[in-house]
Write a structure and sequence with these properties.
By secondary structure, the protein is of the alpha+beta class. It contains three helices and three strands. It has helices at residues 27-37, 55-69, 103-149; strands at 6-12, 18-24, 46-52. Strands 2-1-3 form a three-stranded antiparallel sheet. Strand 1 and strand 2 form a beta hairpin. The radius of gyration is 22 Å and the shape is flat.
Length: 150
């Protein structure tokens, strides 16, 4: 750990969901690394960063932020993991370090898993939406029935 100023950064998708929290004394360089290495980089729409006077302070803030804010893709510190049944990124977290010949196949495989996960999330959201609509309709029908008696 150094006494150099270090940035704590947060990466968000287009809907404003928190994807990743990290720290670096050169965030622009780190984002270039993420762009090359991380399967989720295509989801990043914007970033926010906050500077700390030392790496220790930034790392402590990063650890606390990951624990409390639960970003979607942090794995090295306490935080959320992908839902059960969805495998981790193939062969480790950094596809860029794999053999050049197999990278495209690994990326395709991971994207298929991500699509499957997204389908599951959307299906669950739709089922929840339908259940809420049914309850609201039942409540509305009950209110209309009561107002018809009065």
């Amino acid at each position: 750990m150094t006494d150099r100023p270090t940035a704590l950064y947060r990466l968000y998708d287009v809907a404003g969901h928190l994807l990743y929290i990290g720290s670096s004394n050169d965030p622009t360089r780190r984002w270039r690394e993420h762009r090359k290495e991380m399967f989720w980089w295509r989801e990043v729409d914007r970033h926010e960063h906050q500077w700390f006077p030392t790496e220790v302070l930034a790392f402590t803030a990063e650890r606390d932020a990951i624990f409390t804010e639960q970003p979607r893709y942090n794995k090295t510190l306490p935080g959320p993991v992908l839902p059960a049944g969805v495998p981790p990124q193939p062969h480790g977290t950094r596809l860029a370090y794999q053999h050049r010949e197999i990278r495209p196949a690994l990326r395709r495989q991971w994207q298929l898993w991500r699509l499957h996960l997204q389908d599951g999330i959307e299906t669950e959201r739709e089922a929840l939406r339908q259940a809420i609509l049914l309850r609201l309709r039942a409540r509305l029908a009950g209110l209309q029935h009561l107002s018809g008696r009065g």
